[in-house]
Specification:
With 170 residues, the protein is mainly α. The chain contains six helices and no strands. It has one domain. Helix 2 packs across helix 3 and helix 5 crosses helix 6.
Length: 170
């Protein structure tokens, strides 16, 4: 629990992911949570089978993008630490996205006229926060300057969310 709290602190720009060394069981539980929560969120938004496939594609893209980044920067030894830091924070954001979906459903049931606008605004906020978190992780772990870390985080987001979504639209 202590390690989880240290990783969750990354979501609030506290701690250095390079100083956090996760055990294998923690890393794989994190991936399992990512897959399950992602399938739930995507299942609420789209067809559960398509949503699950998209989540698996995102997972593959996340692992390969982290691997490619670390291979090109010659910092392969950070692989487990980097993907764990990103996945813990993604799981946190995914949990908040699930709450947002629940809130949207509740507002629709209550016939709130602003339900869609509020849900979209929360979605944009969560995406912005996610990119800021991943940028922080890249800056702390890989010692990237701010601009490079933001560009890399945005690129990571496009690769891990945009490409699988685009693939699913084909």
């Amino acid at each position: 629990m202590k390690l989880l709290l240290k990783y969750l602190a990354l979501c609030f720009f506290i701690n250095n992911p390079a100083n956090l060394v996760p055990p294998k069981s923690f890393m794989w539980k994190n991936v399992a949570f990512y897959l399950i929560s992602g399938c739930i969120v995507e299942g609420l938004i789209a067809d559960p089978a398509d949503g699950s496939l998209e989540v698996f594609l995102r997972t593959i893209m996340a692992f390969s993008t982290v691997a490619t980044l670390l291979f090109t920067t010659k910092k392969w030894h950070y692989y487990n630490q980097l993907y764990t830091a990103i996945f813990v924070c993604e799981n946190f954001i995914m949990t908040l996205a699930t709450v947002t979906e629940g809130l949207y459903f509740w507002m629709v049931m209550e016939h709130n006229e602003s339900a869609e606008e509020i849900s979209i605004a929360l979605g944009f906020f969560l995406v912005g926060w996610y990119i800021a978190i991943v940028s922080y992780i890249f800056r702390q772990m890989l010692l990237f300057p701010m601009t490079k870390s933001v560009i890399t985080a945005f690129s990571y987001f496009v690769l891990t969310y945009g490409l699988p979504m685009m693939f699913m639209d084909i």
